Amino acid sequence: MENDVAELKGRVGRLEEQFKGLKEQLGRVEGHVGQLVKAFQIYNSTLLKVLSSKGVLTETEAEALSSHLLYVPPAKSKYFTEEVSQRLIEILKGVKEGRHTVAEEKDLRR
What we know:
Layout lengths: L1 H52 L5 H10 L13 H15 L5 H8 L1
Helix pairs in contact: 1-2
């Protein structure tokens, strides 16, 4: 009986370590996804500015497309809540208007 309990404790300990490792990996993946999102937004914003400056797009078209870059899908999970969605929209508007802080950039990476 004692051997069974010891074996179960060992298994639980190993599972806890595995879950801890998975949680750390998930955190890194989330950080990388956040960086990709930001990179795509910067790329798209820059592309719109270049196309507008070369006359490929009018200012109105560039502004309309730029506004679309701020679109955030509705909150549908326990992690991506309405509060998180609203905060993301605030930060993206600040980035678009050229007024954002280092703290907000860190928020985007979380």
